[in-house]
Amino acid sequence: MLELSLGILLAAGATYFVLLPILRPSVELARGDAGSDEGEDPADDMSPQTVALRALKEIEFDRATGKLSDTDYEQLKAKYTQAALARCEEKVRGTR
Question: How far is CA 4 from the centre of its chain?
């Protein structure tokens, strides 16, 4: 009888432990905090400067993996670097 009681108690404790996150929401959700998972996603930034910088990273990766020749890389790098610098200069002039 004692073993049965301990088994039931152990099963109830394990069930409570497993269901605790479901039964009691986290403190951040209870307070209504957004948390770090929500908000603006930097990957959604489609500004011309960000697009040019991402393109630079992409062509560097393509060159490193052999998908892009050195001549194509140099041409694209010059194009996207010029575009990124132009956007940076516009941004600096706009904040003054």
Answer: 50
